[in-house]
User: What shape does this take?
Amino acid sequence: MKITVGVSNRHIHLTQNDLDILFGKELTKSKDLKQPGQFASNEFVTIKTIKSEITNVRVLGPVRDYTQVEISKTDAYKLGINPPVRSSGNLKDAETVTLIGPNGTIVTNSCIIADRHIHITYDEKQKYNIPDKVNIKINGEKKGIIEVNVKPSQEAFFELHLDTDDANAFLLKNDDEVEMLNI
Amino acid sequence: MKITVGVSNRHIHLTQNDLDILFGKELTKSKDLKQPGQFASNEFVTIKTIKSEITNVRVLGPVRDYTQVEISKTDAYKLGINPPVRSSGNLKDAETVTLIGPNGTIVTNSCIIADRHIHITYDEKQKYNIPDKVNIKINGEKKGIIEVNVKPSQEAFFELHLDTDDANAFLLKNDDEVEMLNI
Assistant: This one.
């Protein structure tokens, strides 16, 4: 079975309270993302640590009930931190970073490396008998197989989300097609 | 069979002529690398393109009979270029970049993304019956299998060389052990 790739660059999600502190206004939509209801905003923050900083990190909307900073391992080396690999919403042992917005600054204990994951509806997962972990085969000049988590939800656009390290290691771009093995 | 990982950050190799232009002096050794005769120098250049630049790129020694710039796909996006994946020494369709040293500047048509490869002696390759391509199994939090090229030479330290994209995608560090499948 084929699945398309969505490459996630570093980004953040914010609570309403943290949004208020950082921006003092609501998020404005730049464009809709493929996942239903999700959008890229026109708002950006700087992620700062003792070692370094990364500017122009986009905020995704809408606001959530948790703030979450998602970066790659490459970013983590630059920032001098060691965030855990986590599914979205699981902030156990997350790293602490400072976020700087135009209206204010917060220190947040919510920096993770997002796991490789597939968005799918509960219905699709059951219909196609897809397990909780899937092996994905990648062809091209840098071949391989990666294990990814399957994350069903009520509403979802069927897609494999990889961070920029995974995408770049396998020369994958947005909307490339890869293969789910044994499905 | 197990093999240790060596992570290659972006770096360059220079001809004597290009070294003369960029530095106007010989390379000085910072430390020996594991591959026999190879060393990290104390000399650094800037890689520049129309879009951007990357500073502090280390020169490896000794000088070679070709100049070669080895970067990651992540670097390539930053620089706005599209270098091919190549084995060292194969500069077919290589990208053009400008190198800036303390003594001068060159434009070189030699920028590649190095392929994933294993260094091994001809004798070891024959002894262990290792084919020209091998699948490497990576465990840990981000699991997978990657295909790598086997590059025998007369003298070699047995090691798997990955660039920073591959290493970071699989959370691998220098001297980590991974497994060669079916060998």
Residues 16-23 of chain A form the longest helix (8 residues). Chain A has two domains: 8-114, 117-180. The radius of gyration of chain A is 17 Å. The interface with chain B takes residues 72-74, 77, 84-85, 115-116, 141-147, 164-166, 168-171 of chain A (CB under 8 Å).
